[in-house]
Amino acid sequence: MATVLLTGGAGYIGSHAALEFLNDGSEVVVADNFSNSSPKSIERVEKLTGKKVALREVDVCDKAATRKLFEEFKFDAIVHFAGYKAVGESVAQPLKYYRNNIDSALVLCELMEEFGVNKIVFSSSATVYGTSQNVPLKETEPTGCTNPYGWTKLMIEQILRDFARSNENISVTLLRYFNPVGAHASGEIGEDPLGIPNNLAPFVCQVAVGRREKLSVFGSDYPTPDGTGVRDYIHVVDLALGHVAAYRNAKPGVSVYNLGTGTGYSVLDLVKTFEKVNGVKIPYELTARRPGDVATCYADPTLANEALGWSAKLGLEEMCRDAYNWQKKYPNGYRD
Ligand code: UFG
Questions:
Q1: Closest CA to 332 of 174, 190, 170
Q2: Is 149 annotated as catalytic?
Q3: Which CATH class is domain 3-184+232-262+298-313?
C-alpha cells in the first residue's frame, strides 16, 4: 500500500484530503504543527473511516524533525498543504510568511531528493492570477500577485518547477484552488479559523450560530450582476478528491490544474442560498470594498476534468448545507 505524507494534514483542506486518501486505500501520515489546526480533526477522520493515521507533531520548516519522518516512512508522495494563508496578515508580516512558506517547501524538496521521493502535489491558489479578470481563468493565464501570501504560492510554484527540471523523475502537480467552502457531510470535520474569519463562508456560519452579529458585504458597486464580488466556491470534499485524482494521475514533469467548479456566484448569491437551504437569517450590511479584492474570479476547470477525470460534483446548496451542519454541531469548532 502506498504511503502519502500530508503536511498540514490536520487543517481544513488537509483533514478532508486525509479522509479521501484513506478511503482511496492509501496509508496516510500527517505532519502538522497545529499552529492553525487541531489534532481532533484527525481523530475524527479516523473515526469516520475506521482507519488509522500516523499523526506527528512536526513543523516542516524544521528539517531535522522532518527528516525523522522520511526515515520512519517510505513515502510514495508528498501532498503539501502546510502554510500560512491569511492575505491581510501577510501584508502586515511579510517576512513571517516568506520564512515559513518558502522554508517548508525547500525542506520538503531537499528531503525528497535525499530520500528519492519523486512525487509532490502542492496547494497553490487562484491568487496567482493576480488581478486578471480574464474569466474563466485558464492555467495559461499570466501570473502575478498582489500580496506576500500570493507571492509565496507563486514562488513555491517556481521552486517546484525548477526542482522538476533538475531531475526527470520528479513529478510536480500544482493545484490552484479557487474558494473552498463546506465541510464533510457528517459534520465531524470542517473549517475552524482562529479569531475573526477573513473568509466569507466561515463568517456567514458564525453569524448563523450567533457568534457574530452581522456580515459586512465588502463592496456592492462591482461590475457584477448584483454589484457584489463573484467567486468560484468549491465544496471542500470535491477539492479533497481533486488531490486524490492528482496523486493517482501524477506524471513526471510539471502539471498545473485549476480546482474550481467553473461557476461564479456573488456574495449575495451565497448569503441567499445559505438562508434558503438552512432556514436561517443572515443579517448583513453593505460596506466599502476590501482593498485588494477583484470583482470576479472563477475557473476554467477543463484541464483537470480531462487530464484527471475529476470534476466538482457538489453545488452551492450542498456547500451551504454542509458548512452550517458542521458549525451547528460544533459552534466553537474543535474547541468544543
Ligand atoms: N467577503 C465579504 N465579507 C466578508 C468576507 C468576504 O463580503 O466578511 C467577500 C469578498 O469581498 C469576496 C468574497 O466575499 O468578494 C470572497 O472572499 P473570501 O475572503 O472568502 O475569499 P477571497 O476570494 O478573497 O480569497 C480567496 C482565498 C485566498 C486567495 C484569494 C485569491 O481565501 O487564499 O481567494 O484567489 F488568495
A1: 190
A2: yes
A3: alpha beta
Instruction: Determine the Cα–Cα distance for residues 318 and 215; give it in Å rounded to an integer.
Output: 21
pTM score of the predicted model: 0.98
Task: Identify whether the C-beta of residue 160 lies closer than 8 Å to the C-beta of residue 172.
Answer: yes
Ligand 1 midpoint to CA 200 (Å): 6
CB count within 10 Å of CB 287 equals: 12
- H/E stretch holding 287 reads strand 284-287
Q: pLDDT tens digit string along 171-206? A: 999 999 999 999 999 999 999 999 999 999 999 999
The answer, yes or no, to whether any atom of ligand 1 lies below 6 A from the CB of 267, is: yes
CA nearest ligand 1 atom 16, residue: 200
Contact 56, 31 (CB under 8 A): yes
Q: Which of 149, 233, 298, 324 is catalytic?
A: 149
Q: Is the pLDDT of residue 278 over 90?
A: yes
Burial class from Cβ neighbours inside 10 Å (0-12, 13-18, 19+) for residue 146 reads: middle
d(CA 100, CA 160): 16
Residue 77: which of 129, 118, 31 has the closest Cα?
A: 118
At 209, list the grid cell. 450560530
pLDDT digits (tens, 9 = 90+) for 222-251: 999 999 999 999 999 999 999 999 999 999
